[in-house]
């Protein structure tokens, strides 16, 4: 499937590399680095306490931020608190200082209409919605899509998320003159029979299999462990290097489990395969994508 | 004698130049694949690297910088699509270099079906499949770009592939016209 999608790519990285003149690069670099980065702090409101690598940095700045237990933030509450004229709302708290509004979720179980109304009351066009989430993500922000002017407020070491590790965004810092739109998705408890839409691995703290090691064990052994937790398997996903995950409802007991993800309350999905080691996807990074041309 | 401020400033510029040199081609290709003209692609690239310059301390080292930049480019593109385009003179020259890069692809037969099905997907599904199929990222890398867990990527990718397969089966190949992808018709 990756191959047929790759065929729709209009250009490869290698082809792109031949498009731009050296003088253009020099011009762009000169213009960008002439930008007064400190004078532009309106666009870069959060100076995070320390640079962190990889996933964490991607999360911290990010388009889609897996965030933390909001319950934690009630105690740990991220931003530096010198200041303030706090206007404590029922579902969200808004604290204004230094040209920014810090928004922290106080009541993760409030109705979405209340969040949206409170944002609106503060002149912010931010939409908050809720999706069923695996237990450790209930009450956390699991997705953020908005302008780079809005940055997450993080609390380090007070929580753990699958994407962010212990570097957990717990709220939003919004420039006071920001008028753009943003979307925010919160995790909520799943209703009976409802599938989780967002999750971290089942063996993470707060999840159904916390404390168990399932990766690398045979299916038979893992099923026994699940029975001890009164957890059942909703489906198996069999890894294929080219076809991705193929759904199966029964697999040989001698196969191996790679990971377990929450599926619904009391149910998990097992990623499995014939070999002990997970099959890697065929890397395509260095392979030039074909340029589309009239086919056949 | 240079002041400490000057030294920091030179060091900052030097780090930015290294990041730019190492990653401009994949970021440009990312932008070209998702836009329909050189002006838009140039804006995405310029805005992405401007963000990197302003937030240099946040850019991770090594190849992780590329994933970070994809994440920025994705958000810049989303703002662009929402009409928040901030046309700047930064990208004028780059626009000229890219004037001819967006040729109208003409798809026929099976490829036209695939193109139409791909276009019919929700933005999130399309981006997920494109990050794998076009940028060649693995699950962990996609997770870094999207800021979610590797497992979440697997699940979402699984669902996106299922929806894509369904879309391919739903496309009425007789109703297709050439140029059925993107905004290039």
Please explain how this structure is put together.
The complex is a heterodimer of chains A (296) and B (185). With 296 residues, chain A is α+β, with helices and mostly antiparallel strands. In chain A, 19% of the residues lie in helices and 30% in strands. Chain A has a five-stranded antiparallel sheet with strand order 1-2-3-7-6, sandwiched between helices. In chain A, strands 10-9-12-11 form a four-stranded mixed sheet. In chain A, strands 4-8-5 form a three-stranded mixed sheet, covered by helices on one side. The two termini of chain A are 20 Å apart. The C terminus of chain A is likely disordered. Helices cover 66% and strands 0% of the residues of chain B. Chain B contains eight helices and no strands. The C terminus of chain B is likely disordered.
Number of helices of chain A: 7
Sequence of secondary-structure elements of chain A: HHHHHEEEHEEEEEHEEEE
- How much helical structure, as a percent, in the residues of chain B? 55-70%
Shape of chain A: flat
Helix and strand element order of chain B: HHHHHHHH
How many E strands of chain B? Answer: 0
The amount of beta strand of chain A, in percent, is 25-35%
Question: Which pair of chains forms the biggest interface, and how many residues does each contribute?
Answer: A-B, 88 and 86 residues
What distinguishing features does this structure have?
heterodimer, A: 296 residues, alpha+beta, five-stranded antiparallel beta sheet, four-stranded mixed beta sheet, 12 strands, B: 185 residues, mainly alpha, 0% strand
Layout of SSEs?
The complex is a heterodimer of chains A (296) and B (185).
Chain A: H1 2-6, H2 13-17, H3 22-33, H4 54-60, H5 70-76, E1 85-88, E2 92-97, E3 100-105, H6 112-121, E4 125-132, E5 141-145, E6 151-161, E7 165-175, E8 181-188, H7 219-228, E9 232-240, E10 244-248, E11 256-264, E12 267-273
Parallel strand pairs in A: 4-8, 9-12
Antiparallel strand pairs in A: 1-2, 2-3, 3-7, 5-8, 6-7, 9-10, 11-12
Chain B: H1 4-33, H2 38-54, H3 64-81, H4 92-97, H5 109-120, H6 123-133, H7 139-146, H8 150-170
Helix pairs in contact in B: 1-2, 1-3, 2-3, 3-7, 5-8, 6-8, 7-8
């Amino acid at each position: 499937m990756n191959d047929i999608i790759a065929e729709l790519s209009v250009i490869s990285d290698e082809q792109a590399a031949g498009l731009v003149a050296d003088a253009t690069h020099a011009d762009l670099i000169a213009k960008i680095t002439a930008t007064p980065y400190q004078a532009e702090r309106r666009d870069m409101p959060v100076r995070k306490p320390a640079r962190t690598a990889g996933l964490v940095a991607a999360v911290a700045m990010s388009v889609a931020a897996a965030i933390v237990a909001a319950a934690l933030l009630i105690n740990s509450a991220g931003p530096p608190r010198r200041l303030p004229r706090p206007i404590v709302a029922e579902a969200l708290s808004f604290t204004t200082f230094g040209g920014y509004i810090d928004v922290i979720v106080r009541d993760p179980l409030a109705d979405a209409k209340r969040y949206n109304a409170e944002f609106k009351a503060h002149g912010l066009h931010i939409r908050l919605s809720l999706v069923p989430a695996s237990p450790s993500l209930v009450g956390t922000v699991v997705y953020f899509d908005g302008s780079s002017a809005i940055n997450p407020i993080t609390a380090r070491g007070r929580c753990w998320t699958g994407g962010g590790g212990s570097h957990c965004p717990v709220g939003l810092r919004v420039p006071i003159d920001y008028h753009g739109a943003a979307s925010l998705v919160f995790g909520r408890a799943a209703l009976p029979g409802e599938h989780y839409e967002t999750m971290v691995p089942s063996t993470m703290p707060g999840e159904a299999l916390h404390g168990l090691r399932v990766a690398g064990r045979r299916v038979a052994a893992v099923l026994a462990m699940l029975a001890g937790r009164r957890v059942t398997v909703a489906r198996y996903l069999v890894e294929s290097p080219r076809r991705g995950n193929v759904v199966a409802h029964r697999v040989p007991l001698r196969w191996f489990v790679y990971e377990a993800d929450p599926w619904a309350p009391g149910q998990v999905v097992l990623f499995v395969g014939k070999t002990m080691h997970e099959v890697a996807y065929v890397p395509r990074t260095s392979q030039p994508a074909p340029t589309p041309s009239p086919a056949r | 004698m240079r002041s400490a401020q000057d030294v920091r400033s030179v060091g900052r510029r030097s780090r930015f130049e290294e990041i730019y040199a190492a990653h401009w081609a994949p970021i440009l290709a990312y932008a070209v694949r998702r836009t329909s003209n050189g002006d838009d692609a140039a804006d995405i690239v310029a805005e992405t690297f401007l963000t990197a310059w302003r937030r240099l301390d946040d850019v991770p080292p090594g190849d992780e910088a590329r994933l970070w930049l994809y994440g920025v480019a994705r958000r810049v593109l989303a703002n662009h699509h929402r009409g928040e385009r901030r046309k700047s003179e930064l990208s004028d020259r780059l626009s000229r270099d890219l004037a001819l890069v967006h040729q109208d692809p003409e798809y026929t037969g099976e490829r036209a079906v695939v193109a139409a099905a791909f276009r019919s997907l929700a933005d999130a599904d399309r981006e997920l499949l494109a990050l794998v199929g076009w940028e060649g990222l693995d699950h962990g890398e996609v997770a870094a770009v999207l800021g979610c867990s590797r497992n979440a990527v697997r699940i979402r990718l699984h669902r996106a592939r299922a929806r894509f397969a369904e879309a391919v089966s739903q496309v009425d190949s007789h109703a297709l016209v050439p140029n059925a992808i993107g905004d290039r018709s």
